Amino acid sequence: HDLSRIRNFCIIAHIDHGKSTLADRFIELSKIISERDYKDQILDSMDIERERGITIKSQAVTIPYVSGEGVEYQLNFVDTPGHVDFSYEVSRAISSCEGALLLVDATQGVEAQTLSNLYLALEHDLEIIPVINKIDMPAADIEGVKHQIEHDLGLPADEAALISAKMGTGIMELFEKLVKEIPSPSAQEDAPAKALVFDSHYDPYRGVVVHFRIFEGSFREGQEIFFMGSESRYTIDELGRFRIGLERTGKLHAGEVGYFLAGIKTISDIRVGDTVTDYKHPCKEALPGFMDVKPMVYSSIYPVDSNDYQELAAAMEKLKLNDASLVYEKDSSLALGFGYKCGFLGLLHLEVVQERLEREFGLSIVFTAPSVMYEVYLLNGEMIQVETPADMPESSKIDYSMEPYIKASIITPTEYIGNLISLCEEKRGIQKDMIYLDEKRVEIIYEMPLAEVLFEFYDRLKSVSRGYASFDYDLIDYRRTDLAKLDILINGNAVDTLSQLVFRENAAYRARKVCKKLTKEIARHQFQIPIQGAIGNHIIARENIRALRKDVTAKCYGGDISRKRKLLEKQKEGKKRMKMVGNVELPQSAFLSVLKTD
Ligand code: GTP
């Protein structure tokens, strides 16, 4: 075991600049996986990641590398996500590394998350290697991007690595560069064992798998360990490295990254950011751990079938193991029974949680309209935090309300400035600054209500700038607002889980959109179904779903019986995902569709 042969680094970049592709190339060249088993995007192992083509989870992997001089290295690297919602994953990955490869797409240049990820890496004193990717593309502007790296990022551009992760160009040179430039971990091997829990996951066959980076001492199978934060004690059953899957080694030393199993039964004992040490010879102080994440958006989730509540409870606990940014507490609704009120980092995070609960745990669930956290001041001087429409006090008791504001930084080619300014103004934005980065690109700074950014803003930003503008944001403060609770009535019944908190001026517009959406989601019944939007007793929007005339199976009469059976089965399958509201069947998709106002 030789520390000077270890390199721990992460790959960071703006979304789509090629991190996962580069990680795949590293793995391919290290030959830890046979060609036969090789498939694209190895590290994006969740189905959702493959389908959407984005990374959601940071993934650690260890590969061997023999340098040109014949020295064998152990490279531990982490592929991180690029989307704004998941920057928390990046900050965690960074804390177990000494270096970072900062990828910049040669056709796109420096974008918003290139900057925000660079700042994260600098805060942690990482050695940063700028890498220009996609040099194979005809539109690659290497000189232009070099200028941006020098000018916008303040990094020496002459030393930037030039690669094509897709074609495999420049990868060997990048390996050589990174083993030379990224420092080896500095760690005391003979000190008491000390490691950071940076992630964990639940394996249905093996139970809780803890991911850790060792800072001091060593860990081995059979060792008694102690989690300093949760004050819990376990014995390590199995321990090893991340290859493709887990590779048992029995022992790991300071500076290394790996996993262990310890027959952990109480899932809440495992906290990301906790320090794990030797039980008999503990280290003195815990590692600093991670900053608590602040959820940006809240929504409640319920099982479609109320009997599944216990299953949902177990699933939430396991999901939390692998997603430290998820926060939740118990909740209940008239229409939907028991569930959880959850905090998410953004709408994409919410969608991912929904999909993971359904795919990994086989649950059918319903989400309520997401909301930011409002501060509502009552006439009696009290302040309450309102995260869901159900928390909203009666309007006669309210003095005034406050909503969270963000500072948004948008980087765009100059030709889209006009479009972006109109979009921001429409979203109640206040322009604060406009900085020309060079002749072709500008950074626009806006202050905007977070609630406006949550819905459709990102998609609109991309569409008005033909995909060229990029965007990043930080929460700044709370400001006065005019808040109203919009209720949705289906066949005269208010459905508590469809209610939304809205800026009063936008209420009528929002209500019309939601009603229209619902007419598309709800199937025709034997009777006409009115769908209405209301604030208090005041109806502000209305649509109708016309009554059904024919029996759906009618067209199969005389036809083949198996076709008819298939149709009925399909309906039954659909029913499982239906929620009855009064005498109307509401499909699960209706709950999410109302959030998307396109
Ligand atoms: P997120 O993890 O979602 O932030 O994305 P990412 O940075 O991991 O990007 P990914 O590796 O998924 O690549 C995005 C797209 O760029 C994919 O379609 C890749 O095939 C493509 N791509 C990546 N590297 C190269 C390259 O060197 N040349 C070309 N032509 N395309 C590339």
Automatic annotation (TrEMBL):
<dbReference type="InterPro" id="IPR005225">
    <property type="entry name" value="Small_GTP-bd"/>
</dbReference>
<dbReference type="GO" id="GO:0003746">
    <property type="term" value="F:translation elongation factor activity"/>
</dbReference>
<dbReference type="InterPro" id="IPR004161">
    <property type="entry name" value="EFTu-like_2"/>
</dbReference>
<dbReference type="GO" id="GO:0045727">
    <property type="term" value="P:positive regulation of translation"/>
</dbReference>
<dbReference type="GO" id="GO:0003924">
    <property type="term" value="F:GTPase activity"/>
</dbReference>
<keyword id="KW-0547">Nucleotide-binding</keyword>
<dbReference type="InterPro" id="IPR013842">
    <property type="entry name" value="LepA_CTD"/>
</dbReference>
<dbReference type="InterPro" id="IPR035654">
    <property type="entry name" value="LepA_IV"/>
</dbReference>
<protein>
    <recommendedName>
        <fullName>Elongation factor 4</fullName>
        <ecNumber>3.6.5.n1</ecNumber>
    </recommendedName>
</protein>
<keyword id="KW-0648">Protein biosynthesis</keyword>
<keyword id="KW-0378">Hydrolase</keyword>
<dbReference type="InterPro" id="IPR031157">
    <property type="entry name" value="G_TR_CS"/>
</dbReference>
<feature type="binding site">
    <location>
        <begin position="16"/>
        <end position="21"/>
    </location>
    <ligand>
        <name>GTP</name>
    </ligand>
</feature>
<dbReference type="InterPro" id="IPR000640">
    <property type="entry name" value="EFG_V-like"/>
</dbReference>
<keyword id="KW-0251">Elongation factor</keyword>
<keyword id="KW-0472">Membrane</keyword>
<dbReference type="GO" id="GO:0043022">
    <property type="term" value="F:ribosome binding"/>
</dbReference>
<dbReference type="Pfam" id="PF03144">
    <property type="entry name" value="GTP_EFTU_D2"/>
</dbReference>
<comment type="similarity">
    <text>Belongs to the GTP-binding elongation factor family. LepA subfamily.</text>
</comment>
<dbReference type="InterPro" id="IPR038363">
    <property type="entry name" value="LepA_C_sf"/>
</dbReference>
<dbReference type="Pfam" id="PF00009">
    <property type="entry name" value="GTP_EFTU"/>
</dbReference>
<dbReference type="InterPro" id="IPR009000">
    <property type="entry name" value="Transl_B-barrel_sf"/>
</dbReference>
<keyword id="KW-1003">Cell membrane</keyword>
<dbReference type="Pfam" id="PF00679">
    <property type="entry name" value="EFG_C"/>
</dbReference>
<dbReference type="InterPro" id="IPR027417">
    <property type="entry name" value="P-loop_NTPase"/>
</dbReference>
<feature type="domain" description="Tr-type G">
    <location>
        <begin position="4"/>
        <end position="186"/>
    </location>
</feature>
<dbReference type="InterPro" id="IPR006297">
    <property type="entry name" value="EF-4"/>
</dbReference>
<dbReference type="GO" id="GO:0005525">
    <property type="term" value="F:GTP binding"/>
</dbReference>
<dbReference type="InterPro" id="IPR035647">
    <property type="entry name" value="EFG_III/V"/>
</dbReference>
<comment type="function">
    <text>Required for accurate and efficient protein synthesis under certain stress conditions. May act as a fidelity factor of the translation reaction, by catalyzing a one-codon backward translocation of tRNAs on improperly translocated ribosomes. Back-translocation proceeds from a post-translocation (POST) complex to a pre-translocation (PRE) complex, thus giving elongation factor G a second chance to translocate the tRNAs correctly. Binds to ribosomes in a GTP-dependent manner.</text>
</comment>
<dbReference type="Pfam" id="PF06421">
    <property type="entry name" value="LepA_C"/>
</dbReference>
<dbReference type="GO" id="GO:0005886">
    <property type="term" value="C:plasma membrane"/>
</dbReference>
<feature type="binding site">
    <location>
        <begin position="133"/>
        <end position="136"/>
    </location>
    <ligand>
        <name>GTP</name>
    </ligand>
</feature>
<comment type="similarity">
    <text>Belongs to the TRAFAC class translation factor GTPase superfamily. Classic translation factor GTPase family. LepA subfamily.</text>
</comment>
<keyword id="KW-0342">GTP-binding</keyword>
<dbReference type="InterPro" id="IPR000795">
    <property type="entry name" value="T_Tr_GTP-bd_dom"/>
</dbReference>
